[in-house]
UniProtKB/TrEMBL annotation:
InterPro entries: ComplexI_49kDa-like, NADH_Q_OxRdtase_suD, Ni-dep_hyd_lsu, Ni-dep_hyd_lsu_Ni_BS, NiFe-Hase_large. Fe cation binds at residues 68, 362. Pfam families: Complex1_49kDa, NiFeSe_Hases. Keywords: Iron, Magnesium, Metal-binding, Nickel, Oxidoreductase. This is Energy conserving hydrogenase Ehb large subunit (Protein N). Its cofactor is Fe cation; Ni(2+). Mg(2+) binds at residues 46, 326. Ni(2+) binds at residues 65, 68, 359. The keyword Chloroplast does not apply.
């Protein structure tokens, strides 16, 4: 197709914190074709994991994504626990879920900040980061780390991550204040005509395309697809909590942001239920009575902030990890964003891509795995 010009964005963009290259072929500032180029980072984490004991690869899995560090470690150790029939104490499972929901909160708030920054509303961006800060402080108090928490280990959680009953009232108090501020941010967003003009009916991903390109997480749920692993019985501990799967049908940027806004309220519900139940649970947080044994590669799924995360590996007769495969949700979500860019104004391009909350670094790790298999 003949176009008047090509605009190349990246590999560095001031509001997208990870490297990517976006080629836009435009006519009169309207996108006719788009090509999203990834693969800037070379990491090869799966190659490094091969031949290591499972305890060490859980440390590496945390480095795949800083924002999703807890869910990666949790899903990683679940493979060994499933393959070796390791029973995890109920209290440890609850705390794993509580930490994950705090991580979901800070991840979604991070996206809101970046989304407002992309549309040029820096006041709202800083407000989102200010609201997020108490969640980061709670994570540090629980786990010792603001971003990389190193909470799950094979058979349970680390001793430092145990939530003492005395800490619960303080956490609940700050959580209530966070909910109040989050509600204000949501109301301010949907009642601001300038914000809504930039995000409503922009970047529409219809349900058929989302299903065809395997959208996942809030990106899929913003297009009317039900795909939450927590509600499908994939992660058993979530069967103990009452919460709703948030689904919007319009498929635009607003819907993808709205799913995340309302998911935050559902995460707050889960955290409150978990903290309320903790004092009634046994104090044991770790099962040391397990033995590593060989098993063939098995698959484990979990619900990360951006969607479905998948881990698969096996253990050989020496207790070493083999055939490591990790799949993160961004790759298919980026394919969806690339497909819907044509027809939009060039100024909406980065906003549309940002609305799927991409993690380019963990996606580039996946590209390396694909090349290795070839």
């Amino acid at each position: 197709m003949k176009c008047e010009e090509e605009i190349a964005i990246g590999p560095v963009h001031p509001t997208m914190l990870e490297p990517h290259r976006l080629r836009l072929f435009i006519e009169d500032e309207i996108i006719k074709e788009a090509e999203l180029v990834i693969g800037v980072n070379y990491r090869g984490i799966e190659l490094i994991m091969e031949g290591l004991p499972p305890e060490k690869i859980s440390i590496l899995s945390e480095k795949i994504c800083g924002i999703c560090s807890h869910i990666h470690v949790w899903t990683n150790v679940m493979v060994t626990e499933k393959g070796c029939d390791i029973e995890v104490p109920e209290r440890a499972e609850y705390i794993r879920a509580i930490v994950e929901e705090f991580e979901r909160l800070h991840s979604h708030m991070l996206l809101f900040g970046h989304a407002f920054e992309v549309i040029g509303f820096e006041t709202m961006a800083f407000r989102a980061f200010m609201i997020r800060e108490p969640i980061m402080q709670i994570l540090r108090e629980i786990t010792g780390g603001r971003v990389q928490n190193s909470c799950p280990i094979i058979g349970g959680i680390r001793p430092r991550c145990n939530i003492n009953d005395s800490k619960i009232p303080s956490i609940l108090e700050r959580l209530e204040k966070f909910e109040e501020n989050l509600n204000k941010l949501l109301n301010r967003t949907i009642n601001d005509p300038m914000i809504m003009a930039r995000i409503k009916d922009v970047g529409v991903l219809d349900k058929k395309t989302a299903k065809k390109l395997h959208a996942t997480g809030p990106t899929a749920r913003g297009s009317g697809l039900s795909c939450d692993m927590r509600k499908k019985g994939i992660v058993p501990v979530y069967d103990n909590f009452e919460f709703e799967e948030v689904i919007f049908d319009d498929g635009d940027v607003f819907s993808r942001l709205a799913v995340r806004f309302y998911e935050c309220f559902e995460s707050i519900k889960i955290i409150r239920q978990g903290l309320k139940e903790l004092p009634n649970l046994d104090k044991n947080i770790y099962n040391p009575n397990y033995e590593l044994k060989p098993f063939k590669p098995i698959n484990v799924y979990n619900e990360a902030q951006r969607g479905q995360v998948y881990y698969s590996y096996g253990l050989d007769e020496n207790g070493r990890v083999r055939h490591v495969k990790v799949r993160t949700p961004t790759l298919t979500n980026l394919a969806c964003m690339e497909a819907i860019l044509p027809g939009h104004h060039v100024s909406d391009a980065e906003l549309i891509i940002a609305s799927c909350d991409p993690c380019f670094t963990c996606t580039d790790r996946m590209i390396i795995q694909t090349n290795r298999k070839k």
